[in-house]
Amino acid sequence: MPPHRWSSKHFLDSEVQAVRGAIDIMRTIGRFAMVLTVGSMLAACSSTHKPVVVTPDMLQGQIWVMSSLNGEAPVGGKRVTMELTQGSASQGKVNGRGPCNSYFGGYQIEKGAVSFGRIGSTMMACREPVMQQEMAFHTTLQKTNQMLMDGRTLTLKEAGGQDSIVFMAETGRVKGEVQSSTGGFPRNSQMTIRLSDVSKQDTQLQIIGEQKIKLKGELHGPVAFDLPYAPHLIQAGHTYAVSVEVRQNGKLLYTSKSHYPLNLDKAALDVKAEPVKTM
């Protein structure tokens, strides 16, 4: 049998087929790589951290500060708070400061569902926009049946509903010491340290953070404080300062005569408390 002879045309056809085969392989690899990439993206999305249902023990020792009510920020930047304390495995007490008044009541968490009992409050009157938000706050709180935590964010909402209250944890800290000008503080008194917005001198100070310390015994020397505040309440261009007062049975005994400007770059703040002069 005579040997097979390859013509140039035959050789060219073979080369074209080889190239086409290589292209098909590359397309297959490309599609496979795309599937892997999309699959990896979907897997990453499916593993995204999700909010968890709150249990009573997760809420202890934390004051929560409202960042929004039904999508709106607190009127006038007010510090609206909520503190939940556990009374039993599923029940506890709730109290805090609303847009206008202090409030108090009870709550229950059972099988992941939360409910708030009747909420009482003080009866102070505020300007209309604040009172409207106060009413909305209490209404939304009473409708809440779901409480979710995502990191340092706590959301109260009605399952399937549009209304919600979003709270943020007080993660900011101002540390320092309070020194009495007389060398000490009386026993059974209470010290209150406040961080306030002092930008507008002609209006009531806006409280950003507050810490209360019970002084059971007579103290000589400085009192250390670790004042928490919610960073989302700090506004650019505003001025903030720390003040202190000491009361015994409701009577004001000591106060800081001036406000101490907040310096986040300073390690600690030294505050001086002076006795209140009685007439």
UniProtKB/TrEMBL annotation:
Residues 58-167 form the DUF306 domain. It holds the Pfam family META. InterPro entries: DUF306_Meta_HslJ, HslJ-like_sf, Hsp_HslJ-like, Pilotin. PANTHER family: HEAT SHOCK PROTEIN HSLJ (PTHR35535:SF1). This is DUF306 domain-containing protein.
